[in-house]
């Protein structure tokens, strides 16, 4: 080892630091032959190898300074086990464009770069093939290769890092050094035809997708991805019951981080940007509507680039671009922004803290081809939040919040929808994007119980109206199935009036 490794992983750099002799003679006290064994005693090992008391100095097996530093970096960075993906800033400014504004030349370059990543798919050990990059999101298992960051503070920072890794991989294809990932303005015009042509569609899994346990095949090699047509996608986004447009405008107008993000801090309310995102996934097709397979649809990358753009847009408009400014927009604790190992966004070499300032990664966005308007009307709860000193408009009594409280999503298998039904008709609906194994996923478990506020007009709830909630889950073959509320933690329904803040 000539240089210390800055972001070492157990499999690549740590395992082989221990010789057979080390493993044998230390067996009575610690197990140096497994990840768990080394991790559990990592601090003790570090102090011994630093002091030079282990391995035995007389046998000329003392670790070099580079090896000690590598081990120390491994401890400092949270014991990364496998597949560390380095997030590196581009050396030139990257300006991501609306995909509708790409020139013919830019489309050709993007096609070449995607094709280049797909050409690497035949080698399953190539970390930077399309298949393996897409596989970071969820499948293939086993569990230790699965990284679910949704419905938490880390959702946006994690995906920002993921996009940079993917874009850098595109740029590693010969001749594509200047390629830039474009974004799909979800509220803009229909997707252009080229997104439905090679190499962006079709795509079939080149290898079996192992499930969460890693023991069974969840999806066979050769299975094609499924995506809706451009017309259906647009129709879904703008459907009468689609919350995508309204939750994007709520998010962009939000004065604080938690209200922009949804599901943050102590409240687990499904709203704002994560609600728009979850419903957007559902609008695009069966493959992209499941976390386990979403990133295998090449359109996922244009779709997610837009969520990153909207986060950066909110940050820019609300003066939250630097870490100090960003922290001033927090309502709740900022421990998730600390510089500590447990905040590493696995499998990347960064923390949320590092991802706040997109400009520091040389990534920026060009405005979309259509104008973008933000609706800055905000609602406050009539109970609890309103201050006596604030004024309210009487007209606001027309808006009612119907809260579906304490839904237990860990009991529900896969992505699902919640419908608000009045006198037999569905008047509001929203989707939750979650894995089949939510009950076993660490991130999902943190926010297993959540609530959903549906805002409705008073005249939509006539006196004596019967209000019902339905939950439908989406099956792998595209069908759906209604499940009884008793299988979703028996949520209850609260109805409240809202006041418009003057
Ligand atoms: Cu997503």
TrEMBL record:
Keyword Metal-binding: yes
GO molecular function, one term: oxidoreductase activity
The UniProt record lists the keyword Metal-binding: yes
UniProt domain Tyrosinase copper-binding: residue ranges: 297-308
Keywords: Copper, Metal-binding
Alphabetized InterPro entries for the sequence: Di-copper_centre_dom_sf (IPR008922), Tyrosinase/Hemocyanin (IPR050316), Tyrosinase_Cu-bd (IPR002227)
Family matches, as PANTHER family: SHKT DOMAIN-CONTAINING PROTEIN, TYROSINASE FAMILY MEMBER
Name this protein carries in UniProt: Tyrosinase copper-binding domain-containing protein
Native source organism of the sequence: Hyphomonas beringensis
């Amino acid at each position: 080892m000539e240089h210390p490794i800055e972001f070492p992983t157990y499999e690549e750099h740590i395992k082989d630091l221990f010789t057979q002799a080390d493993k044998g003679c230390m067996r009575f006290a610690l197990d140096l032959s497994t990840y768990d064994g080394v991790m559990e005693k990592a601090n003790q090992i570090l102090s011994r190898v630093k002091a030079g008391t282990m391995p035995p100095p007389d046998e000329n097996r003392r670790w070099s300074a580079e090896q000690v530093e590598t081990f120390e970096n491994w401890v400092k960075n949270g014991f990364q086990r496998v597949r560390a993906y380095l997030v590196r800033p581009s050396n030139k400014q990257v300006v991501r464009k609306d995909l509708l504004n790409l020139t013919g030349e830019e489309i050709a370059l993007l096609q070449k770069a995607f094709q280049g990543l797909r050409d690497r798919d035949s080698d399953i050990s190539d970390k930077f093939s399309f298949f393996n990059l897409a596989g970071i999101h969820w499948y293939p298992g086993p569990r230790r290769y699965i990284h679910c960051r949704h419905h938490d503070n880390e959702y946006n920072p994690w995906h920002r890092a993921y996009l940079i890794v993917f874009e850098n991989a595109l740029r590693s294809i010969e001749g594509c050094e200047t390629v830039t990932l474009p974004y799909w303005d979800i509220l803009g015009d229909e997707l252009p035809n080229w997104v439905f042509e090679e190499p962006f569609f079709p795509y079939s899994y080149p290898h079996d997708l192992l499930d969460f346990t890693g023991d069974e095949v969840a999806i066979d090699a050769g299975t094609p991805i499924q995506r809706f047509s451009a017309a259906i996608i647009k129709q879904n986004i703008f459907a009468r019951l689609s919350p995508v447009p309204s939750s994007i405008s709520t998010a962009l107008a939000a004065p604080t981080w938690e209200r922009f993000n949804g599901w943050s801090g102590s409240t687990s309310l499904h709203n704002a940007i994560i609600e728009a995102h979850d419903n957007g996934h559902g609008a695009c097709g069966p493959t992209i509507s499941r976390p386990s397979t979403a990133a295998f649809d090449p359109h996922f990358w244009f779709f997610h680039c837009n969520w990153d753009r909207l986060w950066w847009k909110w940050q820019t408009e609300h003066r939250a671009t630097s870490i100090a400014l960003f922290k001033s927009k927090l309502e709740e604790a900022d421990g998730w922004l600390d510089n500590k190992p447990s905040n590493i966004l696995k499998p990347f070499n960064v923390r949320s803290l590092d991802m706040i300032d997109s400009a520091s990664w040389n990534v920026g966005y060009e405005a979309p081809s259509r104008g973008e308007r933000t609706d800055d009307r905000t609602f406050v709860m009539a109970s609890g939040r309103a201050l006596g000193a604030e004024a309210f408009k009487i007209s606001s009594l027309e808006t009612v919040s119907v809260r579906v409280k304490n839904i237990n999503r860990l009991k529900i298998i896969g992505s699902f929808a919640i419908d608000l039904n009045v006198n037999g008709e569905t008047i509001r609906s929203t989707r939750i994007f979650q894995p089949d194994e939510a009950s076993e996923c660490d991130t999902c478990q943190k926010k297993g119980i959540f609530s959903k506020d549906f805002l409705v007009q008073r005249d939509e709830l006539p006196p004596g109206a019967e209000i019902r909630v339905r939950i439908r889950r989406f099956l792998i073959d595209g069908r759906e199935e209604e499940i009884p509320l008793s299988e979703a933690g028996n949520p209850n329904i609260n109805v409240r009036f809202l006041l418009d803040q003057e």
